[in-house]
Amino acid sequence: MKRRAFVKRATLSSFATIIGTELVFGSKILNGYTPLAVQNPDPFKMFNKHPEMVVLNDKPWNIEAQAHLLDDKITPNACMFIRNNGLVPEDIDLTTWTLTIDGESVTNEKEYTLSELKSKFKHYTYQLAIECGGNGRSEFSPPAKGNQWTVGAIHCASWTGVRLRDVLEDAGIKNNAVYIGYHAVDKHLSMDPKKEPISRGCPMEKALQDETILAFKMNGEDIPLVHGYPLRLVAGGWPASVSGKWINRISIRNKVHDGTKMTGTAYRMPCTPPAPGEKVKDENMCIIESMPVKSLITYPKTGAIINKGKTLNIRGHAWAGELEVTKMEYSIDYGSTWIACGIEKPVNRLAWQHFSANINFSKVGYYEVWARATDSNNMAQPMLIPGWNPKGYLNNACHRIAVKVK
Ligand SMILES: Nc1nc2c(c(=O)[nH]1)N[C@H]1C(S)=C(S)[C@@H](COP(=O)(O)O)O[C@H]1N2
Ligand SMILES: [Mo]
């Protein structure tokens, strides 16, 4: 008689991870049967996300925050947006995990286990703002294809790891090094093992900055799987696509890295501004580097109703790519006049900064509060949508909330 085969323990535990709780009669599940909740998983449970996060796409998972969810000074996991180009890896085994440093411009190709990385190099912790290049895409007209991010594809968590510079220098950097390129273990949507969903990088200058780290902790804990466990490159202030998740290889290149989504129109802007809707040739697209100055009102939530005579305390965050935010203002008259907000210094370079202001409204009625940040090069956010571009990147228009005074 053939014995009935039950699902393996490892499968059962991965089911439990997806569902977010133990399967009570799990040992009774026959091999080959997939529980309903795994066939149709709940992303909020699976990724421990706040119920007000907004799912933009489930294949792959792309989930954004809303402005009011980003009120914390350090973004908690529950409110961090998720952007995946491929499939979240499932079978990560720490005991066999390694990071390889290779490429045309490495002196000695090296391989490190996770514990070697942790024990050999000094640890650093930084708060780093990382924003998806496509944050704000939903406002462009004509519309740009891709995830229709509104304002929520930004987070500033606290990341702990080793400096990429220390690791690259340990392997040795040749004089002709130009760029680094990362490789990761997430799978292409087609499941073709030869295809990478994404493999980006940055010039050596950015790679060698103090704050560019290979992180193994986020907000003091192991990085959640969906955000790059067990090892993530974090390069604050640049498009978040540079911050590769699930990194197992970094190549020191003697030319601009040419991995997936480095070329063509991906994460590039027209080198000179086109007319809205105009076709731009690939050779006229330039790689996005530092992100532009931007801010977000995280309190109150848009639609707030306040009583006449009451002071409204607004607050939020501002960031400026590689630069610092030097001025923060708000307007309640559609940008006609601007009033200074208080703005804190960043905790460290590339962290977002916190602003606040107290607003008094003279009359009952409908208002909008607009917020505008200015960077250390004296560049301010545009009041409304900035230059149209084919992929809908870099919308840093002023954030606006509606307020009723009654
Ligand atoms: N390996 C890998 N790294 C990746 C991606 C990816 O799909 N695979 N997406 C990139 C993009 S486009 C963004 S915006 C950020 C999103 O990071 P998060 O999901 O932790 O918020 O990860 C980047 N790193
Ligand atoms: Mo992104």
Order of helices and strands: HHHEEEEEHEEHEEHEEEEEEEEEEEEEEE
**What is the approximate shape?**
globular
Cα end-to-end separation = 78 Å
Low-confidence runs (pLDDT<50, min 5 residues)? none
The CATH architecture designation of the largest domain is Alpha-Beta Complex
Helical fraction equals under 10%
CATH fold name of the largest domain: Sulfite Oxidase, Chain A, domain 2
Mean pLDDT: 95
Characterize the biggest β-sheet: 5 strands, mixed
What features would you describe in this structure?
With 406 residues, the chain is mainly β. Helix content is 9%, strand content 31%. The protein has 3 domains: 1-41, no CATH class; 98-287, Sulfite Oxidase, Chain A, domain 2, CATH 3.90.420.10; 294-405, Immunoglobulin-like (Sandwich). The chain has helices at 9-19, 36-39, 43-46, 114-120, 164-171, 204-207; strands spanning 54-58, 61-64, 82-83, 98-102, 110-113, 123-131, 154-163, 179-184, 201-203, 213-218, 221-222, 232-234, 247-253, 268-270, 285-287, 294-299, 304-306, 312-319, 325-331, 339-340, 342-343, 353-359, 365-375, 399-405. It has a 5-stranded mixed beta sheet. β1 and β2 form a beta hairpin. The termini are far apart. Bound molecules: ligand MTE and molybdenum atom (MO).
Labels describing this entry:
406 residues; mainly beta; Sulfite Oxidase, Chain A, domain 2; Immunoglobulin-like; 3 domains; five-stranded mixed beta sheet; five-stranded antiparallel beta sheet; 24 strands; binds the ligand Nc1nc2c(c(=O)[nH]1)N[C@H]1C(S)=C(S)[C@@H](COP(=O)(O)O)O[C@H]1N2; binds molybdenum atom
